[in-house]
Amino acid sequence: MGHNQVGFMTVISIMITVSCVTKVLPIQGQGLVPPVSGLKYGFYNSSCPSAESTVKTSIQSFLSSNVSQAAGVIRLLFHDCFVQGCDGSLLVNDTNGEQTSIPNRTLRRSAFAIIDLIKSQLESNCPGVVSCADILALAARECVNQSGGPFFQIPTGRRDSLNFSSNATVLTNLPAPTSNISRLISSFSSKGLNQTDLAALSGAHTVGLSHCNSFSNRLRPTVDPTLNSTLATKLQQLCPNSSINAITNLDIVTPNTFDNQYFTNNLEGNVLFTSDAALLNDTQTKSTVQSLSSSSTQFSKQFSISMIKMSMISVLTGSAGNIRRVCSVLNATGSNVATTTLAEIIIDEFMEIPTL
Ligand code: HEM
Ligand SMILES: *[C@@H]1O[C@H](CO)[C@@H](O)[C@H](O)[C@H]1NC(C)=O
Ligand SMILES: *[C@@H]1O[C@H](CO)[C@@H](O)[C@H](O)[C@H]1NC(C)=O
Ligand SMILES: *[C@@H]1O[C@H](CO)[C@@H](O)[C@H](O)[C@H]1NC(C)=O
Ligand SMILES: *[C@@H]1O[C@H](CO)[C@@H](O)[C@H](O)[C@H]1NC(C)=O
Ligand SMILES: *[C@@H]1O[C@H](CO)[C@@H](O)[C@H](O)[C@H]1NC(C)=O
Ligand SMILES: *[C@@H]1O[C@H](CO)[C@@H](O)[C@H](O)[C@H]1NC(C)=O
Ligand SMILES: *[C@@H]1O[C@H](CO)[C@@H](O)[C@H](O)[C@H]1NC(C)=O
Ligand SMILES: *[C@@H]1O[C@H](CO)[C@@H](O)[C@H](O)[C@H]1NC(C)=O
Ligand SMILES: *[C@@H]1O[C@H](CO)[C@@H](O)[C@H](O)[C@H]1NC(C)=O
Ligand SMILES: *[C@@H]1O[C@H](CO)[C@@H](O)[C@H](O)[C@H]1NC(C)=O
Ligand SMILES: *[C@@H]1O[C@H](CO)[C@@H](O)[C@H](O)[C@H]1NC(C)=O
Ligand SMILES: CC(=O)N[C@H]1CO[C@H](CO)[C@@H](O)[C@@H]1O
Q: N or C: which end of the chain has fewer CB within 10 A?
């Protein structure tokens, strides 16, 4: 073997080594937030080494047809975690469950379908190993990064709920878009999230859509004076009365990019909900809005920290709960059939049904 060939073999073997090493992704930001008891960074390293990369590549393919899908998945994590913890209970499709409550009526069916399909892929790679609650947390993490936001590690090891909450429980746990600042602070604080987390996480409204219903309280009977008057005029044209429930972008400047634009919009009165504008009514949340508006680096870091914290609310770990076979169906029901289909991702209801 000549010298060159040895060199060549060495390069090949380095490449092989490097590609083996990079299979388990370097843990970025692992130290940002210590995991709660029972969760670990890289929980599936040995039981299902492809878990995180499968979620990543699946989300890549779903977003390649329309990046707007990212917002639907990110919102699911918020709704799952705030109601009975990040336990996949929201994902269960039942006519009496969490999905039927008022705040859930604007969750995207396509987002539920995305989670069901990722689960079915993981069930063929690693049967019975990866929970729906973890898939949702990892999928939301990917959606943030793949729509332009930061990448951060999420501790895993969540288990799935054996039940789901009543629609009345959902209403008491999720703050309404008409909430004032004291209601928002107490809601987040009851989940272990402080004012910095509240302001940073509200920055998720840098992507996605809203129906007129959700902000019509700021247009009628009188226009909220804290709403930017140029935006108020546009929204009145879009939503002239309560029978029109059109949709519009949450971020009026960079609607599909996960950036810190939401905070600048907020300071200019250009956010849709009372709950967004209310962040300026508390000195602590206001100062977070100001500093995240002026630094995208600080936004990336604080949003990552707060998302990790949110993703650990009241998790089931160890031998609690179970690992559901199909995310939209409780194990006990026995059925193995997902209630969602690929067609629901391709035909996003936000595209085909402009009104509720
Ligand atoms: C602070 C309390 C919050 C309130 C009151 C709130 C309320 C809402 C409302 C009313 C909508 C629009 C629904 C519609 O009319 O279609 C919405 C959309 C959205 N929310 Fe929030 N939200 C809050 C916090 C969060 C958090 C913490 C996250 C995630 C970290 C989040 C992520 C989203 C996303 C991504 C959308 C767009 C969904 C889509 O396009 O499908 N929100 N939110
Ligand atoms: C999984 O692997 C990563 C990267 O080597 C490591 O940082 C992490 O601690 C591991 N986690 C577990 C639970 O083995
Ligand atoms: C809860 O669900 C029931 C039946 O599924 C429905 O009749 C009721 O209106 C819902 N309540 C709320 C608050 O969404
Ligand atoms: C729940 O199941 C019903 C059919 O039983 C279906 O029409 C609906 O789209 C499903 N919802 C979700 C979120 O998958
Ligand atoms: C998305 O994550 C990758 C690491 O996986 C990182 O290099 C990239 O900068 C992230 N995107 C943004 C916009 O931060
Ligand atoms: C669901 O189960 C959990 C324990 O895993 C329990 O704390 C919760 O109260 C139950 N919720 C309902 C609606 O039964
Ligand atoms: C905030 O809203 C709650 C109801 O959600 C109400 O009880 C409270 O009086 C309001 N606070 C202020 C300062 O308006
Ligand atoms: C919120 O909690 C974080 C730690 O998670 C801490 O760094 C921050 O100072 C707290 N903010 C407030 C306003 O208490
Ligand atoms: C209203 O929004 C525009 C940008 O759309 C901004 O230039 C203007 O300063 C805002 N007005 C106020 C009072 O903040
Ligand atoms: C903020 O407080 C002011 C005065 O205290 C009030 O007029 C305004 O409605 C509040 N805004 C929000 C969004 O709660
Ligand atoms: C869920 O149901 C399947 C099929 O009955 C079973 O094999 C599996 O062990 C169950 N998972 C858990 C953790 O209960
Ligand atoms: C992407 O989806 C959104 C909402 O679902 C829709 O408004 C938009 O037109 C779609 N974009 C493309 C390029 O299909
Ligand atoms: C996405 C989702 O589950 N939406 C449900 C919300 O509640 C309505 C009314 O109960 C259901 O019809 C939707 O399927």
A: N
Strand locations in the chain (E)? 209-211, 247-249
Spatial contact of 48 and 133, defined as CB atoms under 8 Å apart: no
Packing angle of the helix pair 283-294, 296-310 (nearest 10 deg): 130
> Shortest CA distance to 82 belongs to which of 204, 170, 178, 194?
170
Q: Quick check: CB of 196 below 6 Å from ligand 8?
A: yes
Look up tokens 């409204």; give the residue.
Answer: 205
Atom 3 (ligand 3) nearest CA: 96
184 lines ligand 10 (CB under 6 A): no
Whether the model pTM is above 0.85: yes
Please identify every residue annotated as catalytic: 79
Whether ligand 5 lies within 6 angstroms of the CB of 29 is answered as no
Residues in contact with ligand 9 by the CB-under-6-Å rule are: 228, 230, 268-270
Between the CA of 115 and the centroid of ligand 1 the distance, in Å, is 18
Distance of alpha carbon 166 from alpha carbon 18, whole angstroms: 49
Residues 151-197: pLDDT tens digits? 999 999 999 999 988 878 888 999 999 999 999 999 999 999 999 99
